[in-house]
Amino acid sequence: MTGTVFDIGYRSYTGAREGRGRSRLALFRDGVRASLGLGRPPRAKVLPWLFVVLLSGIALVMAMIAGAAERLVGDGATEKLNLPTHADYYGIASILMFVFAALVAPELLCRDRREGVLQLYLVRPLTGTDYVAARWASFLTVMTVAAWLPQVILFLGLCMGDPAPIAYLREHWLDIPRFLASGIIMSTYVTTLALLTASFTSRRAYAAVFLVGLFAITTPFTIGLADEMRDGAGPWISMFNLTNIPLHVVDVIFGGPSEMTEDAPARVLGSTTLVTWYLAWILVPALVLWSRYRRATP
Amino acid sequence: MSTVYLLTMRQLAGRWRLVIMTVLAVLPVLVAAIMVSSADAPSVREFEEVVLGTIIAGSIAPLVVLALAGPAFANEVEDRTLANLTLTPLPRWRIVLPKLLATITLAAPFIATSALATAYVAFLGDPLAVVAVTASAIIGVALYASAFLWLGLVSTQAIGIGLLYIVLWEGFFSGFVSGVRLLSIRHHAIALMHGIDPRRFAGGDHPSPEVAAALAGLVLVGFVALSVRRMRRMDVP
Amino acid sequence: MIKAATAVIRVDGVSRWYGSVVAVSDVTFDVQPGITGLLGPNGAGKTTLLRMMTGLATASSGTITMFGQPVRDNPSLYRRLGVMSEHETVYGFMRGREFVRAMAKLRGVPHLDDAVDRAIAHVDMADAQHRRMETYSRGMRQRMRLAATIVHDPEVLILDEPLNGADPRQRVHFKRLLQQLAAEGRTIVISSHILEEIEELADDVLLVVNGKLAAQGGFRAIRAALNQRPYHVRVMSDAPRKLAAAAVTLPSVDAVHLDPDGAVIVLSRNVLDLQVALPRLAQAEAVRLRKVEPLDDSLESVFGYLVEG
Questions:
Q1: Number of domains in chain B
Q2: Which helix (H) or strand (E) holds C64?
Q3: Cβ–Cβ of C89/B233 closer than 8 Å?
Q4: Which CATH architecture has domain C229-307?
Q5: Chain C closest-CA separation from residue A6 CA (Å)
Q6: What pTM does this model have?
Q7: Which residue range forms the structural domain that includes residue B183?
Q8: Looking at chain C, which terminus has fewer C-beta neighbours within 10 angstroms, N or C?
Q9: Quick one: fold of C4-225?
Q10: Are residues A213 and B75, on separate chains, in Cβ contact within 8 Å?
Q11: Residues B179-208: pLDDT tens digits?
Q12: Chain-chain contact of A7 with C292 (C-beta, under 8 angstroms)
């Protein structure tokens, strides 16, 4: 019996083979899409976009209030009435940013671990470091945009609402780099902590609850305790108010305390201490996160 | 029924979870101890608002219960093990109730002990106050458990929705809008606390204890009924 | 002929759609005692159909009854029905025996430990029964799940791809087990996408393709029936007209079309003969065959099986 092999059209791949950089970029883009629920059914888009809308909505409301105040009370109403401004925005919106990160960041890490997809990634020219760095970068990007967009809206709103927009722009243009920098401060903090928590469990639910719990519980706890011990260990206890850690740095950028941190006992410790503390809370979690993935092999 | 109960207990009682719950249970007691020992002791109202209302009832209790009751069904749906329970001749309520009881059994001791110790320290051992705080904590746990159990059955995004509920609804709105308090589990529990020990926990804009009790009963039975209904109608993975 | 009076499971005009995707389309059949095979390619709707038959999923339209009772929202039915789904449903932290025992307890099995022993012995897992299920191999988990499915001695068994990942020895064992259970008068429905399994086991076959019931009945009868319908076979070659002219002379060929793109479409009702005659013809005419493919979507898979012998 003779045998025949039929040509059914199989062709081997003859195109370009790109390397590690391309893999990392692909992972990065996938991370951004996963965070925003793109490429998945509408149900997956609800939460992330809801947050973006809520965050922007707060800014919009702030801008409208400021505009109305300008018209009713006259020039300089924002300062006179002590209305919230760019510096205060993050104090108000921080809890939302934390919940957003708590719910969305686990999507990036937990799912891959649970479904065994991580092994598939590592078979490619990707190391564990590449993987976690790409994921971190992608979520950072999403959070930063989520942090910047409302501030841009607020700025535009304040600008338009002012009777002399050009003058407003000229006077306040320094706000722009300030809030851009603050946005990065906030998003880096939130991203690193959220991903660190997500790296410890393979169920998204637990990571989310733990993270929110961490913030929701330590905040009143430390505030209450610090209030009691104002003169003694108060400031040090207040340093463990996780919500305030990045806010203090935002204060430093804006050159003065915002509404949320005005009463914080930790303020007495000075800018250098607070900024160093913030950096510690970025670097140590980042290192732990990195170490958890560094030696991952397929 | 005991099979479902014990199975759920095994599924939910992880070592790390128990450790974290213990830590969380200890926190309010610490705060109470420090508050009481400091020279400038807060008023009952302040204490109630910050420690009992916010820390225990507003954060620790609902989050702990969410972490237990949410996954009770949601994990089974995700892992596709729910069919093991539905492909049995058990009437659906005999699956829902043991799950609920298991969740309460795990969460209540921690929350109740925490509440008890906190109240004991803060109110210097006054029995009625301690009973009021502890009882309302347990009731709060039961109510949250029934709600989150249903949520885990109904939605894959149960945790997200639950967190938004805790942070926005219970944490934010109900603090400001008094009408919302009728629909807030936290406030049901607090109102009941007021009812049990009115001389200590007087005042405040809460629903009356009778209304709160009725609403609480409605919430508990309602969510259990909803869960049973859902189990009967859903496509089990 | 299937007698309606003895039907254990009755599926009547059942459809299931998800939005605009139709998974199962107007399926009607009865299931008798004995082994019935549900056969079809992957994605044909077998699992959806089975899930509806077990009451796990609703039918968008139509009715399904077992023992004359509706399967949906009818927990007491599960005393007489055992189900094994295609995906893993075990609790890793449990030991094998614990799992079977728990499942038995949930079904109110009397003489619990005896029943569990028997079930575990049936699947030949007595040695490993005290180990945690997360340490089992896939085949072992499959067997333990089967033990849990039969522990309450159900009259009806519905098994979705039970031999997924089973090794040859397990297959033989499993086949014997099923035949023994069926001989005791039970009704067994087993689904698979592998022809040989169903061929060995099933008395009756239900062939599902693209959500529709394509054929039903004894396996040999189906095979014969298939050969009565003309197939469209598309042949790509380097000399189409020459091939077409020669193909018309074959007794197994009913008609020949020429496609503008150079393909020859052959209509044939005797595929078995065609599969032998066509290459021989091509060789004789010195025509090189490049591609031979069936065009009838609805019977494509069956043709595929037949061509492979």
A1: 1
A2: strand C61-66
A3: no
A4: 2-Layer Sandwich (3.30)
A5: 6
A6: 0.80
A7: 2-233
A8: N
A9: Rossmann fold (3.40.50)
A10: no
A11: 666 777 877 887 888 888 777 776 666 777
A12: no
